[in-house]
Amino acid sequence: MMSWLVAAAWSGPTAARPAAGSQALYRVTVFGGVLLLFDPFILGAASPLWVSPPALSWAMVALTAGGFGFCWWARFYLGRLWSSSVTRKEGHHVVDTGPYALVRHPIYTGILVAASATAVDRGTVTGLVGLGLITLGYWIKARLEESFLRAELGADAYDAYACRTGMLMPFL
Predict the structure, then answer these.
(1) Alpha carbons 79 and 139: distance in angstroms, whole number
(2) CB 108 within 8 A of CB 141
(3) DSSP per position, 57-113
(4) Which pLDDT value is given to residue 38?
(5) Rounded CA separation 10/110 (Å)
(6) Ordered mean pLDDT values, 10 residues apiece, the chain (172 residues)
(7) Which pLDDT value is given to residue 43?
(8) Nearest 5°: phi and psi at 16?
């Protein structure tokens, strides 16, 4: 997490961003999901629905690491075009190679893979609801980002990319 914040230092200058307040819904949704995923005492639902055997727990640890690794690959690949919020950076263009050839939002995909593995390992109702909220939040953010970038970078270029690359999952 700390390395992600440090990496923000090499992000390029912002040229445009959506209207103020347009990002509040996805932020609140993701934040609520994270709280539910990691706090077993919310809503009194701390009891797991299942207990993961050690082999499954280790597999989920590996999947979580793989999800975060995918995030980092995408983050490094974007370089100065990266932002934690929806923006257009100076010199922005449609990135459609590397991890962006697999999915249009590989950072969100990696986070969702890691959150899914965590929810499976925890096996709680709150964890599963949290995963649902995190998924919804990143879907909302992806839709907002796509609409914004389509307007900023040109519908033809972005739509061609969207036609051949899945949003959060390959081919979907």
Answers:
(1) 23
(2) yes
(3) HHHHHHHHHHHHHHHHHHHHHHGGG--SSS-EETT-----SGGGGTBS-HHHHHHHH
(4) 87
(5) 21
(6) 66 90 96 88 70 96 98 96 94 96 98 97 92 98 96 93 94 74
(7) 56
(8) -160, 155
Tokens of 95: 């990135």
Give the single-character DSSP code of 154.
-
The one-letter amino acid at 165? T
Give CA–CA dist 86/24, Å, rounded.
11
Could you give the C-alpha distances from 128 to 30, 43, 104, 124, 132, in angstroms and in order?
A: 13, 13, 25, 6, 6
CA distance 48 to 42: 13
Domain map of the chain by residue range?
53-80+95-172
Neighbouring residues of 12: CB distance < 8 A, sequence distance ≥ 6: 80, 81, 89, 90, 91
pLDDT of residue 137: 98
The whole-model pTM stands at 0.92
Q: Are 94 and 130 within 8 A, CB to CB?
A: no
Classify 18 as helix, strand or coil.
Answer: coil
Which residue type is seen at 137? Answer: G
